[in-house]
Amino acid sequence: MRSRRRSKSSAFFAKILQYLLVLLLVLGGSWYFYKQYISFNAEKILSESILQEKTFVARPVEVISPHYKIKAYLLEEKTAPIISFSFMFKGAGRVSDDKDQQGISGLTAAMLTEGTESLTSQDFKEKLENYAIGISFSAGLDDFTGAMVTTSEHQKQAYALLKDILIHPRFDKEDLNRTKLQLQKSFLLQKEHPQSILNLKFAEYLYKNHPYGRNPLGEWNAVSKLNRQDLLKYMQTHFAQNNLIIGVAGDITPENLENVLDDVFGSLPQSTAIDFVRNPDMDFNMPELNIDFAAGAQNISRFAAKGVSRSDKDFYPLYVANHIFGGSGLSSRLSKAAREDKGLTYSIYTYMSLADKSPLLQGEFSATKDKYAKVKEILRQEWNKFGQQGATEQEVEDAKNYLLASYNLRFASIANLSEILLYMQKEDLGLDFLQNRNNNIKNISTEQVNQVAKKYFKPQGYVSVNIGNFGQNKEK
Questions:
Q1: Are 441 and 400 in contact (CB under 8 A)?
Q2: Which of 43, 150, 194, 316 could make an S-S bridge to 296, C-beta 3.0–4.6 Å?
Q3: How far apart are CA 23 and CA 34, in angstroms?
Q4: What is the pLDDT of residues 51-86, one digit of tens each?
Q5: pLDDT confidence bin for 381, thresholds 50/70/90
Q6: Does 226 score more than 70 pLDDT?
Q7: Class of domain 289-414+423-468
Q8: 61-265 has which fold?
Q9: Is 32 exposed, middle or buried (0-12, 13-18, 19+ CB in 10 A)?
Q10: Per-residue pLDDT for 15 more than 60?
Q11: Is the confidence at residue 12, as pLDDT, over 70?
Q12: What is the 3-state secondary structure (H, E, C) of the chain?
């Protein structure tokens, strides 16, 4: 009897053990599947991406319309029935706003998708939805940009709508008042949000009375008074053929594009009446500026040093140097020193900004009041160290490998590609840029990186504006 009980008991435990082993295998397999296929793994994505080794055998072509001689860069891509237009009116951005009409460019961008003379705002938006067309506008710092994406099937409707917007915008009074009310709320929110307050004070402190120092929303007193005639005049003086740049990608031939360029953009004025914007006078040795804002959960710091333009010989070496120092996320020197090693902040980074009149090397970090001073000191120490000692061979090699592997991921959509074609023209990079860009990265030496590190990461060579609670910062 006991033997039979032992036998049943052994069988029972063996069955339990079998179930446990199966469960472990399932859980282990699930974890492996999660790590391999579901969880975000940037390095794995880059290493296995079909775009990693993609090279652009086909160079873009320059298309010139037969009648008005309007130019565009085109990369024909027939793998999907989609066409993307990116276009820009150079110099028509926020800096071009008249002093007493600050905010007119942004208001115009918001209003251009509110219908045409023949289509109400609702009718216009229904047409976009029915034909699967996307049209958008944006007033940047230097330039005014637009974008249109359409399917090949509905391209004629898309071209007609875009032309109608540019030549016969509606600017209905009711839509204008509604858009102004939305902007007014944005002005009010700016005064409550610490990041917005910091951005405004940073620009004001850095640029003084230069247009770069203005509020990106404009001035509410000016915006509130703008009317339909003001917006129409702005378009007539800022949107013209001589400041127009166009990038096109997708399912369209050069021959077809030639006619589209004349049809859509040919009715624009020949030239603009935009005032020239001078270069700002900048001082990167100014003392830091602290803005008291006790209600914020963290102290935030923005800093900037002299940068380089896209066409400068130092651009690519500084591009690699910035990636090593603060531009590569968690693997950057700054992140390792302040976040990984010390656990003092969740966010610290640098980047290169390429404003036409003021290219900068910028950065930002945030930290709680008790840790802020330590992060600030780490930034100072790492900045000075990088300027004096530069990067190692391994750091340069790792940075170049990442920048090479990740670059082609930018071409995951037709819209991204047309935008790159646009900026290739603005920065005068040439038709062969897509073929040459990676070679420009590969050819950067450690010596070149360290030369620009010494040149641009000067001791305390950055201006800093900070917002938060700046009482005694004692480590808990």
A1: yes
A2: 194
A3: 16
A4: 444 555 578 999 999 999 999 999 999 989 999 999
A5: very high
A6: yes
A7: alpha beta
A8: Cytochrome Bc1 Complex; Chain A, domain 1 (3.30.830)
A9: exposed
A10: no
A11: no
A12: CHHHHHHHHHHHHHHHHHHHHHHHHHHHHHHHHHHHHHCCCHHHHHHHCCCCCCCCCCCCEEEECCCCCCEEEEEECCCCCEEEEEEEECCCCHHHCCHHHCCHHHHHHHHCCCCECCECHHHHHHHHHHCCCEEEEEECCCCEEEEEEEEHHHHHHHHHHHHHHHHCECCCHHHHHHHHHHHHHHHHHHCCCHHHHHHHHHHHHHHCCCHHHCCCCCCHHHHCCCCHHHHHHHHHHHCCHHHEEEEEEECCCHHHHHHHHHHHHCCCCCCCCCCCCCCCCCCCCCCCEEEECCCCCCEEEEEEEECCCCCCCCHHHHHHHHHHHHHCHHHCHHHHHHHHCCCCCCEEEEEEEEECCEEEEEEEEEECHHHHHHHHHHHHHHHHHHHHHCCCHHHHHHHHHHHHHHHHHHHCCHHHHHHHHHHHHHCCCCCCHHHHHHHHHHCCCHHHHHHHHHHHCCCCCCEEEEEECCCCCCCC
User: Which residue ranges make up each domain of the chain?
Assistant: 61-265, 289-414+423-468
Tokens of 133: 């067309």
Q: 437: pLDDT confidence band, cut at 50, 70 and 90?
A: very high
pLDDT of amino acid 463:
97
Same fold? 61-265, 289-414+423-468: yes
Percent of the chain residues topping a pLDDT of 90: 80
